[in-house]
Amino acid sequence: MEPVRSPLESEEYHAALFTVRRAKNYLWWLIVISIVVQMAAFVSVRYAGVIDDAPQLPGVAQAGDEQATTAPVKVLDEKTGSAAWTWYEVLRWALPTTKFIAMAAGMLLVLTMLTAVQLSLVGRTGGAAGFIGGFFWSLLLLVFLIPWQQVIGSTLACGALYNLGDLIDWTRQVVWDAEDATILTKVLYYDRFIGYPVFVLLLSLVVQMKFIRGWRRASLSIMQANLREPAEQNDTL
Hints:
With 237 residues, this protein is an all-alpha fold. The chain has six helices and two strands; from the N terminus they run H-E-E-H-H-H-H-H.
């Protein structure tokens, strides 16, 4: 692949790629932070039990509730119930928010990687192989960010992102009603809330490394073109 011929064009394409790189970094961090927040929410609900005493949870009854016959009555301390309520409200807003942020950032990341590919090809800056690889890996990343359980209504086909309702339903089957949970249900539970997010984080790392590979190749090619141009001009003089 030929390097760009004009130093002015080299600087323009290098500045454009720098803008793309900065946008990619912002979007990448939004995805990573959103996934980490969702994993922290799972750990808080599953192992810390922050909402176990929330009165509004399905299957949990307060003292004096005569209609709640499906579960043993739990006498809730005012302080405990208030803390559980606070955690419930925080997670109820945090999970959908991070889900939206991660999905939007994932779609914009795909477009950003595609822009890097176009700049490397049009500007002949080099690094197209790394950018193209990062583009296709970002497509795969977006596939796993989409909440397929809501798109197609399937319990098997799902994404790495979820709402609090999904987490409560699965946790009730595996933890709160543990005697009724099968081994397959437990495997799917941990795969759903641990395996998928970890896999998405690995995919995001691959996208990052592919882009870095393309960026280094493009920067080296542009630098060589800028050094070669003055030498060629001196030879002609």
